[in-house]
Amino acid sequence: MRKIILLPVIIMLAAAVAFSQDNAPEKKYIVAGVAFYNLENLFDTINDNGKYDYEFTPEGPRMWTSERYWKKIGNLSRAITSLSTPETPVGPAVIGISEVENLGVVEDLVSAVDSTLKAQGREPWGLRIVHHDSPDLRGIDVALLYNPLFFEVGNVVPHRLVIPDDPDFITRDQLCVSGSLLDVPVSFIVNHWPSRLGGQAESSPLREAAGRLSRCIADSLWRVNPDQGIVMMGDLNDDPFDKSCAESFGAVRDQDKVTAHGFYNPFWYILDNGVGTLCYKGVWNLFDQIIVSGNLVQGLDGQLQYWKCTVINKPFLRTKTGVYKNYPKRTYAGGRFLNGYSDHFPTQIFLLRSVD
Question: Which fold has domain 2-351?
Answer without folding.
Answer: Deoxyribonuclease I; Chain A (3.60.10)
